[in-house]
Amino acid sequence: MSDRIRAPRGTYDVLPEDALARERLETSAKGILERAGYARIETPIFEATELFARGVGESTDVVQKEMYTFRDEGITLRPEGTAPVCRAYLEQGMHKLPQPVKLWYLGAFFRRERPQQGRFRQFWQLGAEAIGSDDPAVDAESILLLAEILEALAARGLRLRISSLGTPATRAEYRDELQAYLREHEDRLSREVRERIELNPLRAFDADHPGTREVMRGAPLLLDRLTPEDHEHFETVTQLLDTVGLAYEVDPTLVRGLDYYTRTVFEFTSDALGAQSGVGGGGRYDGLMEQIGGPATPGMGWAAGLERMLLASPPPPTAPPPLDLYVAYAKPEHEAEAFRLAADTRRAGLAARVELGGRSLKGQLRQADRAGARYVAILGDEGTSLKDMETGEQREVETGTVMHHIGRPPL
Ligand code: HAM
Which of 75, 107, 143, 211 could cross-link 188 (Cys pair, CB 3.0–4.6 Å)? Predict the structure, then answer.
């Protein structure tokens, strides 16, 4: 025997018992999003590498080291969904639709990260994007919808943090100010942060290193440097969240791992998760459309990791799917008739199974019982007998009338 082939690191199998929880999440999220006017979109699993390089940003970890790229073709397995949805918006002329255009998606994404609890190389995201309006109510509604989805799942230990990154111009000025501050305190920073002062000084707020954290406590905050318009936008978002009674913390040090954000950013974490506590997050990306070659178009959205949402929630109660009829037979010559009875019953919209494992009649009856069958039809030389598994009552019937006997009474 040769070596057994295993699944690649950072991937997992969705077994039938896991599929139920995923299905429930999908149904619930779809209901919540579609009641708010979001429609489902599916974009390709791979896109032009350039889309992410320009959309997500060259300086991000995602683009620098986490993408699965086929260099010869210039394509990349999607690491996130916002740039692809914006690409589709432009390419499909969605600016002609009433704005904002609200789209949601659920699918597999790929990042070459170090696998650990809650962090995979192939993972699933549920996402929602509202494109074409810069109204702060779009931001508040978007955040509220993710809150409602997480609440419907009964996700534990949730915390919502929110901030504003302002406009690119404010950010550039602030970046200079922060870089100057970091350089001033360079000797107390971790090597990693020191090396990233030029490329991504904002990430310094993310550091675990004690010296760096100490320095960052006195660092200037972007939230204090916002323009009056951005400040007002942020105020309106938080006021609307207050109006609907959604609790949040304003966290001026909130950084997101992707470059396209402007104004509002937010993140839900759960303390039911380990180190990878980010359940979902997002924000506004008013400059992204131009980055990828379109006209200036505002956008706002989020994505949440399916695995992390499920890890943070209690598992749904499991019940075996109902089985209306199990068709058993004593001898091989009854197999075809049994096969047809099961097929006819399913065509009539009922759940029916026939023996497929070559079991003895006794084995078949045990199997029917284990599967929770409501009725068992036993085909034999003497005809067909139908057993009601609830009452234990058994009677002889014509094979052709089995469906009539087991059919659900009209409502
Ligand atoms: P993100 O924060 O990079 O944002 O990812 C969103 C969520 O995806 C995370 O909160 C996490 O739950 C999940 N996630 C990310 N990476 C992994 C991984 N390796 N394994 C398991 N789960 C993971 C975005 O992707 C943005 N596109 C969100 C957005 C939409 N912003 C605006 N619109």
Answer: 211
